[in-house]
Amino acid sequence: MVKIGIIGAGHIGGNVARQAVRAGHEVVVSFSRDPETLRAFAADLGERAVAGTPREAVTGAELTVLSVPWGVIDAALEQAGTLDGALVVDTTNQFGPGPGPEAGQTAAAFNAARLPGARYTKSFNTLTAGFQAQVADRPLETRVVQWICGDDPAAKAVVADFVDSLGYLPIDLGGLADCAVMESPRRPGAVYGEEYRRADAEGVVAAVRAGRPIPPTPAYE
Ligand SMILES: NC(=O)c1ccc[n+]([C@@H]2O[C@H](COP(=O)([O-])OP(=O)(O)OC[C@H]3O[C@@H](n4cnc5c(N)ncnc54)[C@H](OP(=O)(O)O)[C@@H]3O)[C@@H](O)[C@H]2O)c1
């Protein structure tokens, strides 16, 4: 059992919360324009979930999921307070308004810098919320990859265990400087927006590590 704090329990964060409860984890959901909706969502998840403020979600969490629209990341982080030492999984993609990365900088590297002292990782960002909800907990042979990137190997190992517990296949793609293929927009030569399974993931990791273009996008039955 892992104590999970969720900042932004919407499409993606809400999926993660529901799947985490199903896997036996404890969850605090937070950040909403309507606290009553948040409380109702937590109640629907059952006794292993409660609603709180972002600060309450982060406090005592072994793993914090940041899952808010790009334009409100700073507002969410302000409500969360310090994340120094916290293990954070960032699910965000850069759409819409708000400050963004410099040319050549990944969104992950940009966001990691907004979280001073955090053990930053990025995952759950490449597939639509609907697809993630549909494919979680598939049998091992067709399990869908959740890519993970970050510069802290120990943090990525914790996230990999968590991702596995939710019913996906965790694959470590590399460091923050190398994870551009995980990031929006959907395009040829990127894993963003595409389903991957184990056999095809290995070729992607090898290519990214070698600085080569990744193999063509796989298609599954
Ligand atoms: N949706 C997808 O398919 C998908 C897939 C991969 C990655 N992502 C990325 O993951 C992140 C989360 O996406 P999402 O689709 O899950 O987002 P979302 O459902 O639109 O929003 C997440 C949560 O943030 C809260 N929120 C939004 N604006 C707020 C504000 N001004 N003040 C307080 N709370 C606010 C919402 O709560 P209330 O509505 O209750 O206010 C909502 O529950 C985004 O960065 C997105 O790009 C999304």
Write the layout of secondary structure elements.
Layout: E1 3-7, H1 11-22, E2 26-30, H2 35-45, E3 49-52, H3 54-58, E4 63-66, H4 73-80, E5 87-90, H5 107-113, E6 119-122, H6 129-135, E7 145-150, H7 153-166, E8 169-174, H8 198-210
Parallel strand pairs: 1-2, 1-4, 2-3, 4-5, 5-6, 7-8
Antiparallel strand pairs: 6-7
Helix pairs in contact: 1-6
Provide a quick synopsis of the model.
Helix content is 35%, strand content 17%.
Plain-language structure description:
The protein has 221 residues and is of the alpha/beta class. The protein has a single domain, classed as NAD(P)-binding Rossmann-like Domain (Rossmann fold, 3-Layer(aba) Sandwich). It is 35% helix and 17% strand. The protein has an eight-stranded mixed β-sheet with strand order 3-2-1-4-5-6-7-8, with helices on both faces. Helix 1 runs parallel beside helix 6. The longest helix has 14 residues. The chain is globular. NADP nicotinamide-adenine-dinucleotide phosphate binds next to helix 1.
